[in-house]
Amino acid sequence: RKEFVDLYLNYVFNESIREPFEDFMQGFLRGCPATKWKMFLPVELQVVLQGHTKLDWHLLEKNVMYRQYKKSDQTIRNFWTVFHKLPEEKKKMFLAFVSGSDRIPGYGLEHFKFSIADPQEEHPDELYPFANTCEHILFLPR
C-alpha cells in the first residue's frame, strides 16, 4: 500500500504536470533569467513576487501626504478614526481602491506613499470619494 500511495502521489504532483510546468518554466525564465533570481533567499523572493501581506496601518497613516488638506482638518481626523475601526479585510480593500493592489510592494510600507486630496468641488456632498491608482491619490470630498 505504501508503494502504491508513493507512486500515486509522485504521478499527481510530478509526472502529470511535468510538461505544462516545463512550458511555464521555459517562458518564465525567458522573461526573468534564473541568474537574477539566485541572489534572493526563498523568503525574499516571495516578498518580491507577492509583496508584503502584514501591514502596519498606523505607519501607512504616518506616510500620507495631504493636498489641499492639513492633518488637523476635521475631514482627515474623521477619515482616520473610521479607517482604524475597519476590519483588516476592509482596510486591504481600501488599499486596493487607492493603489490597485491589496498588498504593499517589496520595498516596504515605510517607503509606500499615498496622498489624500480635496477635489475642490463646488458641491462636495454630491461627490463620492474616488482614487487615482497610478499616482496613489485618494480624492476625499470635504
Automatic annotation (TrEMBL):
Q: Does the keyword Transferase apply?
A: yes
UniProt organism field: Ciconia maguari
Q: Which residues form the active site?
A: 134
Instruction: Provide the catalytic activity annotation.
Output: S-ubiquitinyl-[E2 ubiquitin-conjugating enzyme]-L-cysteine + [acceptor protein]-L-lysine = [E2 ubiquitin-conjugating enzyme]-L-cysteine + N(6)-ubiquitinyl-[acceptor protein]-L-lysine
Instruction: Extract the coiled-coil ranges from the record.
Output: none
| Gene symbol of the encoding locus | Herc4
GO BP: protein polyubiquitination
- UniProt KW keywords: Ligase, Transferase, Ubl conjugation pathway
Report the residue ranges that make up the HECT domain in this protein: 1-142
Q: Does this UniProt record's set of keywords contain Cytoplasm?
A: no
Domain of life from the UniProt record: Eukaryota
EC number(s) in its UniProt entry?
2.3.2.26
Its protein name is HECT-type E3 ubiquitin transferase
> Where is the organism placed in the taxonomic lineage, from the top?
Eukaryota, Metazoa, Chordata, Craniata, Vertebrata
Molecular function (GO) terms listed? Answer: ligase activity; ubiquitin protein ligase activity
